[in-house]
Amino acid sequence: MTQIYWLDQALQGGDYQIGAQRLDAILRQAPLTEERDRFVSAIAATPEGRAALADRLKLAPIWAKPLMSEVWHLPADQVLQRVDLMRRTGKGVWACADSEKISQRLIDLGLIDEAQSVWRLNCGTSHSLVYDGSFEHFDTLKTTTAFDWQLFNRGDANISIAQDPSGNRSLALEVTASITLPIVRQFVVLKPGRYRLVWHTPDTPQSQTKGLRVSLTCKSDLSFALGGMVIAGESDAWYQDFSIGNDCAGRQLIFWLAPHLPVHLDDVSLDAIG
Questions:
Q1: Same structural domain for residues 69 and 166?
Q2: Distance from C-alpha of 125 to C-alpha of 6, rounded to nearest angstrom
Q3: pLDDT tens digits, residue range 211-248?
Q4: CA distance 176 to 197
Q5: Which residues form the domain of 48?
Q6: Which helix (H) or strand (E) holds 43?
Q7: How many angstroms separate the CA atoms of 115 and 99, rounded?
Q8: Of 47, 59, 106, 267, whose CB is crowded by the most CB atoms within 10 A?
Q9: Domain boundary among 105, 123, 141
Q10: How far is it between the farthest Cα atoms of the chain?
Q11: What would the pLDDT profile of 79-100 be if each residue is shown by its tens digit?
Q12: How much is the pTM?
């Protein structure tokens, strides 16, 4: 109770550095206190307060991760306060997993650009606009969020991780249904313009790769799915170009697969062209 009293006194006096220190002391003792969100919001309401809190977060206190993951109930203004705290602590302070829940909450609130910026701050593994194009972090047993690769949950599609003798991972995909199905997707945010998607199909006969098509649209729609054009000099590399307008804030990058044509998918990248 003494710490809470001095925290209130610091806030009333506009001393955010002392306020942040008092809050740090409170949350180190009780990181899940019911008063946490009220205290954090009070300090984070000003840029000076957020700067003071960021200084404490850089020390990786026990309450840091819950602060960014337990946001499902927060209104937009408080979520955006925490986004700013995450940015102020700097790239490399947070693991990618620390961005998942807050990015998903931003998507749910319709704050798509902010969600992508948070995700890229801590989860960017390349300069490509696709996250984890080599599927190094892909886990078929993990509940996916935000900008992860996501599976379509159907019993008539087989999806597993394949690994070659050198340790390179790829997705092994097969549809056992009688129709073409969406099989794996990723939510992407793109400005209007032209983009090139490139993907590889290692250890897959070309006769089977014709069953793999891709769409990059606002909604899941097979009628917009296109096959790949082979990249000269590479028997297992394909590309397709897309023109993107401003008809939606976020798009679904979806790979579709025809029945009984198993393929391996790897090295997916998406880049602006022209």
A1: no
A2: 43
A3: 999 999 999 999 999 999 999 988 899 999 999 999 98
A4: 26
A5: 2-123
A6: helix 36-44
A7: 9
A8: 106
A9: 123
A10: 73
A11: 999 999 999 998 767 888 888 8
A12: 0.79
